[in-house]
Design goal:
homotetramer, alpha/beta, Rossmann fold, 2 domains, seven-stranded mixed sheet, four-stranded antiparallel sheet, 8 helices, 13 strands, 29% strand, formyltetrahydrofolate deformylase activity (chains A, B, C, D), ACT_dom (chains A, B, C, D), PurU_ACT (chains A, B, C, D), PurU (chains A, B, C, D), hydrolase (chains A, B, C, D)
């Protein structure tokens, strides 16, 4: 494990304007009459104005309830503990709901995992530097050292944790040591190592992955070559939360690009890389803005 | 004006399942703390459960407020007058808001205006018959008689009101006679006549229009030929509400298709027709479901 | 089997302008130096002008060769036999090539197979009537009688051949009797019966099928419900040639539409139906214009 | 003007594999019987195999003729002068045609012009470094010094030529001095200065520009704010060749992204930047591969 951190990049873009004096509240649980009223009444009591509210119920008769509310008021930071306490009491009051409340002026902290292929990694770093991705990139972890200089030129710590064969426990122990307490979520930006179920559980934060997608699916090695043999006309990518079932977790975002018979396997990969990086950046943005709610094996995305 | 109505078509699809015991409430006005709470409290008081709620404010500090709420309760029809009265009192209470409340079991009534070109007209009728477009098509009005049999085979009244040169007042008087009291909105499905400002005002219901769109715009006659000369790579369509400023009203929906140099003008028109009918059908669907709120010269669309 | 044919529809659109005095030549085989020169020299010898030529070789070093050439000359029909004989001799001359030559003024004859679901069937009939699909629809065959009147109102013969349980041989014998000698290709427009390998071989014409597609694939019954549980963000469709491997034949065209968590299974199906009909109509158009060349398990599509 | 060149970047990607022993021939002029035969006969005479051939005629009766041919043979470089001479004689022989012949192993040289906004500039440099864009970036010229370090970290010369008010002649003289003899085409990657007609003529190489596009168009300052007021649902970009008529030159490529009412002007700009960079990179790729033929005010693009 290498632990050098470069100096900040010399001509960094102006820091993204944090959304001052606004917070986002996610409420999720069993639908019942009166939830919206209860929440909005609490917010009103504290002089908070609702900036946007998205609510969705997957079955009007006792289904699951999802609500994303952005609200604001002057001097929010000082008022937030009282608002939260009030919400806690109100929502405990006979509702079966979970909620999270987050000050939007504090960006989420993310660790990006990468391997040799760096198109997704760099796309995230560039967007972040341009102010398009409201996260704090705490660190980049890779099983290859190749991207170290590039990452550090963004002023971001780079840690090289080589893969160590079939037994990943030593590498994962290093990962946990680096991550614990330091990040709010993890992005696998074409990270080519499989995470153990134990790691997923112990790290305790959401993990977003990106992988190629085809219609139909091509199982096994070299899916681009197989896709070309079948003559597919679309190449896609899927961003999803990582669960123990590899590549079977809740989907956050998908997209495709059009290809044709004249595209070589290399060109299909290039097109695939393009759609991967745009799909991943949208998934990370939406997660960063608390627009994605996991429920069972799918997601509610309030765009 | 021809006023024969055909018998209903023999093998009509099953009527669309009306959304029983649900209503949609649109609230629109000046943003202020407490609106969401006030509305949801009223609904809760009447035992109504919120099925979906979309709220948007275009400026957290005193901007405009938009809310679409779908709610339900058993025996809604009987309860609706009391809910409406309660809402009226609550929202009058210091808020500057307009609202509309509509029983979703009663589809909106629409008149479709068409000319010779029938791709948009027929697409709407087919979708309606398939149960994909929850409207009652009260009548089709055309300045050409060509589509009469086709329209009547759907069991829908067809009225032929020929265009009458520069002075449209006689034709528009016939239109008003047919429409007044009978429709909730009008769709111009490639209707090639210009409506007078007086007609728009007197008919008093929203009018949706579809027209081709290009980047850049091509002004004047035969835009497809001009688009081909410039070698455009995209052909688009825009559905919008009709205002006195021709083709300048609030946009509801837009889309494009990809074309290339080998497309003849006739093929560009065919592609344009395809995108026109899909854009128009989405705009009509969203209007029918009260998903579109007009505000100034634009729209809020809660999809 | 019902064998009544309706009178032609009363208000048929003007017949599609056949492409007079033009032919399309497809050449396909082993790449070798000199093929393009040989073909274009023959055409030049007969005073034929090349309108468009697309050529593709999947490997510059001895791969497969594909060429689509549209050419024209005055009084083509009379000249075509001599052109064909000349091509036959020239291409026999040391090349390993197959070719087909077709007079573009004679549209291909197609039979459409359908079941209860009629969105794809009707879309093809409407496009054909509008002059957008240059084929002769010789007949519609269905295992349900529901669409008979609708189909016949287009002036097209409708044959009801009920499905007959596990043993399809009697039904397929009827199919072959109807089809043999009468059609150049077959379209399965959401035909819900499986064709036997024997039928596919004996009918001897290309068969195009459409089916829904998802990323990832959802195997088994009710894929839309499974897609919703997984929270897919795209719904797709694939048009392909039918081979004995069900749904595994060479892909002609694919497309997707965007969906979200709020779409019910019924809405997903409606969106799927929309993308199915547009994908199928493109595949049929390209096949009708000889733009699709099968090669192994994929296709070359010269758009 | 600053003229320092940095050392090559330390961890440059492997150089793009040049397409060895292949050349591209573009032929463009008046259609006549026999052109394809004449060209392919010449190529065959020199043992050259045709890898791909796209031909298009905009009117079968004496319209304009366009052909792109990629061909290869062993030891192409040595054979090319004789092939060219043979083509010259053959095409002079009664045809009214222009042609260009280019060895594909020698990438085109490009100068990129930029201003402060660097998303398009950096996207081109990244793609080039990843081997996705087969050009030699000879230099970057900007009227701002901000991007100097970033550009030089790619090992590419950066020249700062400040804008000098209304009279651009001094700056343009510097541009000409830098460019003359050094580049095959120029890309304006969000370069915010207007080029004089004299410069366009004197520089003598094609210039590609990118600009935002809307349906409808929004003229004048701050189009994104106007687009938001009108509630557009699509934001687009157009890449085109620069002519003296500002933003009116032949279109190479266009694309759009979907937006909605909740997007702020800043978000619309971010979305616009994304579509700009992808459209520009496609246009540059296609120009680099000689896939684009200018004709009148439009382009033939052989994809």
């Amino acid at each position: 494990m290498t632990l050098t951190q470069n100096a900040p990049a010399p001509h960094q873009a102006p820091p993204m304007q944090p959304t001052a004096d606004q917070a986002v509240l996610i409420v999720h649980g069993r639908d019942r009459t009166g939830i919206v009223a209860a929440i909005s009444t609490v917010l009103g009591r504290h002089g908070a104005n609702i900036v946007s509210l998205d609510q969705y119920s997957d079955d009007p008769h006792g289904g699951a309830f999802f609500q994303r509310t952005v609200f604001g008021r002057p001097d929010l930071k000082a008022a937030l503990p009282a608002i939260e306490e009030d919400l806690r009491q109100e929502l405990a009051n006979g509702f079966e709901l979970e909620y999270t409340l987050r000050d939007l002026s504090v960006p989420k902290r993310v660790a990006i995992f990468a391997s040799k292929t760096d198109h997704c990694l760099l796309d995230l770093l560039w967007r972040n530097r341009r102010g398009e991705l409201p996260v704090n990139v705490s660190m980049v972890i890779s099983n290859h050292a190749d991207s170290a200089d590039e990452v550090r030129s963004f002023g971001i710590p780079f840690f090289h944790v080589p893969s160590q064969g079939a037994d990943k426990s030593a590498a994962e122990a290093q990962h946990l040591q680096l991550l614990t307490g330091n990040v709010d979520f993890i992005v696998l930006a074409r990270y080519m190592q499989i995470l153990s179920g134990e790691f997923i559980e112990r790290v305790g934060v959401p993990i977003i992955n990106i992988h190629h997608s085809f219609l139909p699916a091509f199982i096994g090695a070299d899916p681009y070559a197989k896709a070309r043999q079948r003559g597919v006309k679309l190449i896609g990518a899927t961003a999803h939360y990582v669960t123990e079932d590899l590549d079977e977790g809740p989907i956050i975002e998908q997209d495709v690009v059009r290809v044709n018979h004249a595209h070589t396997v290399a060109e299909l990969r290039r097109q695939g890389a393009d759609v991967e990086r745009s799909v991943l950046s949208r998934a990370v943005l939406w997660h960063a803005e608390d627009r994605v709610i996991r429920h069972g094996n799918h997601t509610i995305v309030f765009q």
